[in-house]
Fold 8-amino-7-oxononanoate synthase.
Amino acid sequence: TETGLQPEAIDLDPPAVAPERDLFSKFDPLIAEREALLASGVRDPFAIVMDEVRSPTEAVIKGRETILLGTYNYMGMTFDPDVIAAGKEALEKFGSGTNGSRMLNGTFRDHVDAEEALKEFYGARHAMVFSTGYQANLGIISTIAGRGEYIILDADSHASIYDGCKMGDAEVVRFRHNSVEDLDKRLGRLPKEPGKLVVLEGVYSMLGDVAPLKEMVAVAKKHGAMVLSDEAHSMGFYGPNGRGVYEDQGLEADVDFIIGTFSKSVGTVGGFCVSNHPKFEVMRLACRPYIFTASLPPSVVATAATSIRKLMHAHNKRQHLWENARKLHGGLTAMGFKLGTAEPESAIIAVILDDQTQAVAMWQALLENGVYVNMARPPATPAGMFLLRCSLCAEHTTEQLNRVLALFGEAGRATGAIG
Ligand code: PMP
């Protein structure tokens, strides 16, 4: 044969890899933990299938009509008729995919249009669309802070921020979650000369708490650092133009880079960075997670562009989302649940439970009665917490939330989570 490998030279029955050299041995504890959980008779919280999706707030799961209270569909844009029409038109005119990188053949009319829509939405000079928000963090963080420079990040940062740090060559320093004092202390210990990037999030997605961005940005600037804010969980409903927590706290002139995603309020998939930095466009030539991957399908960017432009005027939806957050937070607090924040700070309401058994029992009771929430557990959660994470949608109705509250009450009493 061409390779010189004769069929008879292939051992068709090789000996098993010795256990100490089986690369999967390290997953044994994880496999055992999952088997023990399933053996206790509960449904697997990480294997849910939506058999039908009827609206931003309703799906069919295993034959049961279910209220969705654990998606990032904050503004309910996934079934918007204009968004769907834009996606269909692009699918028909430009086909199902781009077959290439943004840098080569993978930039179509609608990728440019989505970037134009982002520039309009954020009032920013530059916008760069990535294939996911994960890749936007990975790419921007690993590229803008290099060898001999520093990244200073909140200890509770999203996995994509941590992975961006790991991928790059900068020194990484963590500060205590939302602690302005600790940020100041750690920046003060660093040498003055090297470039520094402070990475923050507007809303932290596990507990739904908002960052004191104003104070943090002031501290970062005092130490000569640039600032990146990940506004994934705030787009559409904070600040006069819905730009996010940084706009709400009056920081438009001070934040250097905004990271965002199409997978939450925008209602499709994709990620982006917007910036006014005069040299920002060079990122298109240097950022590996932008270059070495295929670009988004034209239908996806067309839906994103339409959705973003509609979000600029979605004042009623925004108001309704906040009403929903206040209603759910108030109702759960009144029943005695322990929540991630004392007040409703965002569209995420996290219910803190004692342990995995109680969290899974509550999760299952809710699901069996037709309410889906997210089960969140370490390592995704801070401080080893087990959470049922509820995320609200502008399209949730009062009737749906009344039903959710009644079911939380029943499940909470049955599992001992409330008295
Ligand atoms: N940043 C934050 C804060 C997130 O929560 C997420 C996703 N949950 C991302 C980035 C990644 O976004 P995407 O889903 O577009 O990859």
